[in-house]
Amino acid sequence: MKRLDPWLLLSLLAISACAYLAQGSTARALAAPGLANRQLVWLAIGAVLLLLFAFADYRVLARFSPLFYVVSIAVLLALFVIAPLRGGTRSWIAMGSYTVQPSEFARVVTILAVAALADEYRQSRLNFAAVWRMAAVVAAPALLVLLQPDLGMALTYIPILLAALWLGGLPWRAWVALVIGGFVLVAGTWLWLLKPYQRERVLTFADPERAPYSSGYQQRQSKIAVGSGEITGKGLHSGTQSQLRFLPAQYTDFIFAVWAEETGFVGAALLLAAYALLVMRIFVVALSARDRIGAVFAGCAGFVLATAILVNVGMVTGLAPTTGITLPLVSYGGSSVLATCITLGIIQSIWRLRYANV
Description:
Layout: H1 6-29, H2 34-54, H3 58-63, H4 65-82, E1 93-95, E2 98-100, H5 102-118, H6 128-146, H7 151-155, H8 158-167, H9 172-193, H10 196-206, H11 217-228, H12 240-243, H13 255-288, H14 292-316, H15 334-352
Antiparallel strand pairs: 1-2
Helix pairs in contact: 1-2, 1-13, 2-15, 4-5, 4-6, 5-6, 5-14, 5-15, 6-8, 8-14, 11-13, 13-14, 13-15, 14-15
């Protein structure tokens, strides 16, 4: 345990405590007492997985990444056949009374595969072939997730590629081409892939008064909740927006609004400070890594985590459109918690082996 990063573990403990308290409030509001306890169980299982992966050798995992990647693609393909339709998407596999979201674990595998691929190129700058190979590795699972359709989860794959290209030293001319290609992709997605309700969310973000009681309702209630928390909050289990059920999706996408209403600016700042410490330590691990695999994996994972936090908090506070991206470790969901803990476990392995001689 002495060889693990204590600051990363401390930040994880603080975030987990906030998650349990926040889910306890939503459990009371929704008359579902098992929510908080189940989240605590997932966090406990996640802690075990974190330690298991922390004491594994990430380099061995990277060697098997092609196999893991093929299996993850096969599972994502199988979802179109075996997954039930839930909320308009085929993203979940039912296992008795539990459900598993394979796209969460596929994202971890994708980061590992990209890191292993980056290690094959020893040049100071990535060449054209490397860029296209990395893009293909990320695009395949992202496209399958988008077709489920799960736009929010598909968007979380994009930071993997951007971080890998930045860490690989992509020339500025290539970034210009990438930006132009991004605009073309966004336009194509808007015209042919986005559902009408998804377009409406973006339009409502641009014009908040466009649909205050339909597509804009969630964000409207969320901003009310955050603002009403003021400095110290209304107290646990005392938030009116959550306890009176004005706030939709309060145990998943909008859990930060529940926390901000009940603990105020102070509680929200403490949670964000814990996240900042976690992300900072991940980037420290990336800088301290002994090889390119470790540096790219930690860098990509840190960028993905930071993006998810910023987008979710921005969504809750009205600074970003509603996308369905959850708050890592705090939003309810076993697949998300376990996948995040596996990622953090691999990052701890990178830290633990940074001075290894073998």
